[in-house]
């Protein structure tokens, strides 16, 4: 869209250069041809002197207008006066030598830019056709009726042709204005869309912070707090007994709970920020996560990238990375799988993440209630995706594995 606006601006500048230079070129061309034919068309000395004076006057008018136009670029009475004076000089020159009609032609090109009144423009074009028709008829006739008829016919033909050309030119100008307006509207819509997208990302980030706080609070309550409660309970039993065997058993249970709580705390801290993205792009970070998970869980895992990888917005990359971590954690906890496939796909307007396993699967319509073993869960992953205008779907069947698919918009890194 920006390219279209620049092209329109370049066209306007080229047209302005043409309108500014055309009178000089046409005056020079007419003068050259008049000089070459002076012996045939203007044989008398007084005609040549008058033609020279008029050419000098025309040059002075053009140079003066070049300076004045800087102060009066829009149609005004000043530009109209220039147009009339130029036409008068061109008409007089054409009477002396028909080749000066080239200079009179310049009135065809800039009537709209020099005359402020719409109705006067049509009359101005008709006036320009008079010296041109005279030149075509070998001069304005004075006594010859046949030449008068030829002149009148040429004048009518020129104006009919001019009317047709002006009609098509007006249509093309209307289409150009319509295209320019459409381009401007599209550019404005694009800018508004970009601003809205930035606003949505800010809101998503703020909502993500609040959601992350709620998630951490829930995890702390369901894992670490529960573990600490269990430890306190075991130590209270130890404090109230003197039996060495009971003391040993409950101390062992308290130690196991402490190790488990420590592991949950480390996992929560690790999931708090996508550390892998600080050094790697999203595909590299996901590949490392999958490889490390496969090594820890002793489950065969494969990572695949399709499409052309792009550097995504940080919020998009972080969401995909965290959904991947939670999906793999769920496989390790519940699936009893022997193989896992993780696929990251870059498409025209969205990015998809697919995590599939060949585990025992489950019935999506009868999910078990949340337990105190921690975890973000399917609902949390879905909330993450929806927070950035994405979606998450789950396909599962008992005995036939599980497939988690997340789709999020492709928002490049700003």
What does this structure look like?
With 414 residues, the protein is an alpha+beta fold. The chain is 69% helix and 9% strand. Helix 3 runs antiparallel to helix 4 (77-96), helix 8 (118-136) packs across helix 9 and helix 11 packs parallel to helix 12. The longest helix is centred in the middle third of the chain and has 95 residues, at 145-239. It is rod-shaped and about 145 Å long.
Beta-strand fraction estimate: 5-15%
Instruction: State the helix count.
Output: 13
Number of strands: 5
Tell me about the biggest sheet? Answer: 5 strands, mixed
Helix and strand sequence: HHHHHHHHHHHEHEEHEE
Shape: rod-shaped
Structural class: alpha+beta
Q: What oligomerization state is this entry in?
A: single chain
Helix coverage percent:
55-70%
Strand order, sheet with most strands: 1-2-3-5-4
Low-confidence stretches: 1-5, 371-376
What is the terminal separation in angstroms? 19 Å
Q: Whole-number average pLDDT?
A: 81
Our Rg estimate from Cα atoms comes to 42 Å
Element layout with pairings:
Blueprint: H1 2-36, H2 38-41, H3 45-68, H4 77-96, H5 101-104, H6 106-109, H7 111-114, H8 118-136, H9 145-239, H10 244-272, H11 282-297, E1 300-306, H12 314-335, E2 339-346, E3 350-357, H13 377-387, E4 391-396, E5 402-409
Parallel strand pairs: 1-2
Antiparallel strand pairs: 2-3, 3-5, 4-5
